[in-house]
C-alpha cells in the first residue's frame, strides 16, 4: 500500500504523460505532453520551488524560519508561496503588473508579501526583468534574507533531472525529440541534460518568443508569453542545451493555447501554447515513426481573465 502524503508538498511531481490526439498532423510524429498542471499550484514550478528551498535548508544557507526573497513572473512566485507557507518561511516576492492578476492574487492568498514593479503597458521586456531582479536583491540585502535567485540558481536543476527520469520511464525509453520553452533556462537545461544521458540521440528544440528571440541572435523586444523570454541571454543558458531554437509569436502561442482547450480539453497558458507549436513543427519533420515530448507548463486558470477578454 502506498503511504499517504504528510503534506501537500509530497504530492509534487509524478505527473501524467498524455498523447495529443487532435491538434497533431496526421502524417507527423506522436506528441506526448507532460501534465505539469497536475501539481498542487497547477504549475511545473512547484518542482523547482521545493528544490530551491530544501537544498539551502539542508546545507544551512536557509535557517529555520528564515525569510526568502525572489523575483518572479508569476508561477515561480506562487510555487514558492506554497512551499514557504508549509515550511514556515516568510516570503517577499517582486513581480509586475505585466503578469496575470490571478497569479499575483494567488501569491498573496498563500501568504507572500508583494512588491509590484510597473510595466510598459503590460509588456514583458529586458528592462522589466532586470528592474525586478535589482529590486529583489535590494530587499534581500535590507532584510538579511535568503534570495533564491532563480535566474542563476542551480539547485533547481535536480528537480528537472527527476522530471526527465519520469518522462523516460513513462515513454519506456522511446523518445526521439523534446521541445521546451526557455525562461530561466533551468527546465530545458535540466531536462535535456538528463534525457541525453539516457539517449544522446534525442533531439532538443528550445522555444523563445519571436518578438524577443535573443538566444537565436534576434533583437530584444516586448512580448506577452508568460514565464519565458527574459529579453537577454540568461545565466543558466548555453548553446549546447538545444540542437536548435524555434521562434513562436505571442499570437501563435495564444492561438495554440485556445486550440488545446477546444480540441484536446487541455486548458493551459501561453508558454504551453508555444511548446506545442514548436512540437508540431518538429513532428512534421521527424515523421510518423517518431515520438516527441513537450510540457504543459501550467493551467489556463492562471490566465482566465486575460483569456476571457479575447472571447468578447
Briefly characterize the structure.
By secondary structure, the chain is of the alpha/beta class.
Portion of residues in beta strands equals 15-25%
Distance between the termini: 50 Å
- The percent range for helix content is 25-40%
Quickly give the structural class.
alpha/beta
List how many beta strands DSSP finds.
10
- Tell me the number of helical segments per DSSP (H or I, 4 or more residues long): 9
Summarize the helix and strand pattern as letters.
EEHEHEHEHEHEHEEHHEH
Number of domains: 2
Q: How confident is the prediction overall: mean pLDDT? A: 95
How big is the Rg? 18 Å
Sheet of most strands = 6 strands, mixed
CATH-derived architecture of the largest domain:
3-Layer(aba) Sandwich
Instruction: Examine the coordinates and then state which fold CATH places here, giving the name of the CATH topology of the largest domain.
Output: Rossmann fold
Widest beta sheet: strand line-up = 1-2-10-7-8-9
CATH class of the largest domain: Alpha Beta
* Low-pLDDT segments, ≥5 res: none
Shape: globular
Amino acid at each position: 500500500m502506498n503511504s499517504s502524503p504528510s503534506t501537500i508538498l509530497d504530492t509534487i511531481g509524478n505527473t501524467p504523460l498524455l498523447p495529443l490526439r487532435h491538434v497533431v498532423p496526421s502524417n507527423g510524429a506522436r506528441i506526448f505532453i507532460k501534465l505539469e498542471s497536475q501539481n498542487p499550484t497547477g504549475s511545473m514550478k512547484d518542482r523547482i520551488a521545493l528544490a530551491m528551498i530544501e537544498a539551502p535548508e539542508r546545507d544551512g544557507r536557509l535557517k529555520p524560519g528564515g525569510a526568502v526573497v525572489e523575483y518572479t513572473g508569476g508561477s515561480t512566485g506562487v510555487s514558492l508561496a506554497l512551499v514557504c507557507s508549509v515550511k514556515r518561511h516568510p516570503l517577499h516576492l517582486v513581480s509586475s503588473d505585466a503578469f496575470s492578476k490571478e497569479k499575483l492574487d494567488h501569491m498573496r492568498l498563500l501568504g507572500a508579501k508583494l512588491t509590484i514593479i510597473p510595466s510598459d503597458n503590460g509588456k514583458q521586456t529586458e528592462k522589466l526583468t532586470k528592474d525586478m531582479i535589482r529590486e529583489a536583491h535590494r530587499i534581500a540585502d535590507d532584510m538579511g534574507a535568503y534570495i533564491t535567485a532563480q535566474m542563476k540558481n542551480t539547485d533547481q536543476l535536480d528537480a528537472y533531472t527527476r522530471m526527465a527520469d519520469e518522462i523516460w520511464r513513462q515513454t519506456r525509453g522511446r523518445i526521439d525529440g523534446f521541445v521546451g520553452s526557455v525562461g530561466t533556462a533551468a527546465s530545458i537545461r535540466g531536462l535535456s541534460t538528463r534525457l541525453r544521458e539516457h539517449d544522446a540521440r534525442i533531439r532538443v528544440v528550445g522555444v523563445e518568443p519571436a518578438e524577443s528571440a535573443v538566444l537565436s541572435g534576434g533583437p530584444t523586444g516586448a512580448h506577452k508569453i508568460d514565464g519565458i523570454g527574459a529579453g537577454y541571454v540568461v545565466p543558466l543558458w548555453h548553446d549546447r542545451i538545444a540542437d536548435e531554437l524555434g521562434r513562436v509569436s505571442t499570437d501563435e502561442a495564444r492561438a495554440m493555447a485556445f486550440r488545446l482547450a477546444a480540441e484536446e480539453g487541455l486548458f493551459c497558458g501561453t508558454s504551453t501554447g508555444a511548446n506545442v507549436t514548436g512540437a508540431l513543427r518538429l513532428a512534421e519533420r521527424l515523421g510518423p515513426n517518431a515520438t516527441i515530448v513537450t510540457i504543459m507548463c501550467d493551467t489556463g486558470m492562471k490566465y482566465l481573465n486575460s483569456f476571457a477578454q479575447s472571447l468578447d
